């Protein structure tokens, strides 16, 4: 059991490190600054996964507050189900690749050529997942009026502040 726990934690740490390492050059290139000069600010670009389906789900949960029309609700539900149907198989494939990387790293010595190839394979899935999140977010925005988008932002902001208060984190 302890060995499995180490494997899972090691795989998660490795995946997180790969994501962070991949985003530093990307963020710097987009902003035209070096990573050292970039302020540590959380943004939608740095955490794109939070912005797509969860935002659509939040909008659907608060459809009365947002005054969503029936066709808006139907469109948002369609966007969410389409997103879910596309993302689920990709997430499964990415999880399998992460397991393969973890298994390769358990070998002594690790075959770094195979590890690198698996990382690159995983990045293809990550980029596709990121694009699908952005596509769903943009499609969801197109369904909402500007006023509804502003109301949704306020709802999300208040939920975030309430969560931070509950967990004792500074806002």
Protein model, in words:
By secondary structure, the chain is mainly alpha-helical. It has a single domain, classed as Four Helix Bundle (Hemerythrin (Met), subunit A) (Up-down Bundle). 76% of the residues lie in helices and 0% in strands. The chain starts with a helix and ends with a helix.
Topology (elements, then pairings):
Layout: H1 2-31, H2 53-61, H3 70-106, H4 112-143, H5 146-167
Features:
171 residues; mainly alpha; Four Helix Bundle (Hemerythrin (Met), subunit A)
In short:
This protein is an all-alpha fold. The chain contains five helices and no strands.
Radius of gyration: 19 Å
CATH class: Mainly Alpha
Question: If you consult CATH, what is the topology?
Answer: Four Helix Bundle (Hemerythrin (Met), subunit A)
Number of domains: 1
Helicity, in percent?
A: over 70%
Mean pLDDT: 78
The parts where pLDDT drops under 50 for at least 5 residues are 16-51
CATH architecture: Up-down Bundle
Number of helices: 5
Estimate the global geometry from the Cα principal axes.
elongated
